[in-house]
Amino acid sequence: PSWDKYQQGGPKNTLPASSGTNTRDFVSFFLFWVCSLPALWFPVHKIRHLFAVKSIVAPAAGIAFFIWAIVRAHGLGPIVHQPAKLEGGELGWAIVKGIMSSIANFAALIMNNPDFSRFAKRPESAMLPQLITIPVGFAITSFIGIIVSSSSAVIYGSPVWSPLTLLENFLNDAHVTGATRFGVFVIAAAFSLAQLGTNIAANSVSAGTDMTALFPRFLSIRRGSYICAIVGLCMCPWNLMSSSNNFTTYLSAYSVFLSSIAGVMVCDYYLVRKGYLQVRNLYSADKT
Predict the structure, then answer these.
(1) pLDDT tens track for 215-266
(2) Where are the transmembrane segments (predicted)?
């Protein structure tokens, strides 16, 4: 394909290997970044329809991808029958690391929960949906990722941990068909929509809310969201996705940082203030 010329080592690639990316991937990332900027303009309550669409499209695409990989591999892959390779303390620490990585995956949602739960009319309106959807949703997503990666080991000889790389492999098959191209396009488009919603909910709005609380005279949620978008581009996030090990290591370190903040918030609310807050004081800079 013509895009291969812009990969690392291709004749039209203009980025060095030390950059952690290539021209093709960087242009794709930059286009997605630019297309996501208009969504940051709207207030939180006006983009709820985007999340409603995402809640339908993204799970459907994930399940379709799951079934597609199983059908191509004629089964769930070797992970179902593969015995454990770790024992004793190594197995225990691997389990702890896996738990920490899973918690870190939605640690940002735990911290940013008040940014959205404040729109709820009743406490149970915010608590019950999250109590059900967060553990169930993340468990199903993790299960789909594990099985799809296991199926890819049968299809290509080695497991492919990134769904985007696996979709790319589908396109690079020797006998790729038009139906395969269309399926990859639909799933990739659904993943892009899901990523857009995640960026808004877990990153942009939350960063904008925090910045507004720090500098209410100069910043609004909208301005803070755009500052977050600029920082997200400058931090070269593609380096985090260079390997599965880098990604999980980053998540583990991220959870350590956020857990200290969450601990202070929980202790302050339940132990110090006994669950009682004066709303007026939340919007006052006076020392009490």
Answers:
(1) 888 888 899 999 989 988 888 888 776 666 666 666 667 767 777 787 888 8
(2) 26-44, 51-71, 91-110, 131-158, 178-202, 223-241, 253-272
Give the type of residue at 229. A
Are 47 and 55 contacting, i.e. CB atoms less than 8 angstroms apart? no
Which positions ≥6 away from 72 have C-beta within 8 Å? 151, 155
Instruction: Please report, in angstroms and rounded to a whole number, the separation of the first and last CA atoms in the chain.
Output: 65
pTM, two decimal places: 0.77
Cα–Cα nearest to 258, from 206, 219, 214 = 206
Contact criterion met (CB below 8 Å) for 161 and 149? yes
Other CB atoms within 10 A of residue 78 CB = 13
Residues in the chain: 288
d(CA 205, CA 115): 8
The amino acid at residue 114 is P
Cα 278 to chain center, whole Å?
34
CB 129 within 8 A of CB 51: no
Backbone φ, ψ for residue 261 (5° rounding): -70, -45
Neighbour-count burial for 110-143, b at 16+ CB within 10 Å, e otherwise = bbbbebbeeeeeeeeebeeebeeeeeeeeeeeee
DSSP-assigned letter for residue 78: G
